[in-house]
């Protein structure tokens, strides 16, 4: 009987030990599942970071391209502005008129809608 009690106590101790180990295994399985979940989240975060980095590089390249276009357009604008200023000066020179001298009152007479007669007055 004592022997049976000792055997029963030993078996109960083993059962408690196995139950503790079983609890640890369940806890370990939970931790492994959580670790796998965190690995997946980290991989997704790395993919997103790479995507953001790629978008940043593309945006930076686009900004450089637009800056180059802006410089080119600004240079063209300056050239055209200078050309307009030069043409204005040429028009002023061509269209410059001096005051009429005495006797130059009627030197231009219209012949028809498209023709003018210009007479050269004789100077005294």
Please describe the structure with a list of short key phrases separated by commas or semicolons:
mainly alpha; two-stranded antiparallel sheet; rod-shaped; 1 helix
Description:
- With 124 residues, the protein is mostly helical.
- The chain has one domain (2-96).
- Helices cover 75% and strands 5% of the residues.
- The protein has one helix spanning 2-94, and strands at 108-110, 116-118.
- Strands 1-2 form a two-stranded antiparallel ribbon.
- Strand 1 and strand 2 form a beta hairpin.
- The longest helix is centred in the middle third of the chain and has 93 residues, at 2-94.
- The radius of gyration is 50 Å and the shape is rod-shaped.
- The protein starts with a helix and ends in a 6-residue tail after the last strand.
- The model has no long low-confidence stretch (mean pLDDT 85).
The strands making up the biggest β-sheet line up spatially as 1-2
Rg over CA atoms, rounded to whole Å, is 50 Å
Euclidean distance between termini CA atoms: 165 Å
Shape summary: rod-shaped
Task: Output mean pLDDT.
Answer: 85
Count of helical regions: 1
What's the count of strands?
A: 2
Q: How much helical structure, as a percent, in the residues? A: over 70%
């Amino acid at each position: 009987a004592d022997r049976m009690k000792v055997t029963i106590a030993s078996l109960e101790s083993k059962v408690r030990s196995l139950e503790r180990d079983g609890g640890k295994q369940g806890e370990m399985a939970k931790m492994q599942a959580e670790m796998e979940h965190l690995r997946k989240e980290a991989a997704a975060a790395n993919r997103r970071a790479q995507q953001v980095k790629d978008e940043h590089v593309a945006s930076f390249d686009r900004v450089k391209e637009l800056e180059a276009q802006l410089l080119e357009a600004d240079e063209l604008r300056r050239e055209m502005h200078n050309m307009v200023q030069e043409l204005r000066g040429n028009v002023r020179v061509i269209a410059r008129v001096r005051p009429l001298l005495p006797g130059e009152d009627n030197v231009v007479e219209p012949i028809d809608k498209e023709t003018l007669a210009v007479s050269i007055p004789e100077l005294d």
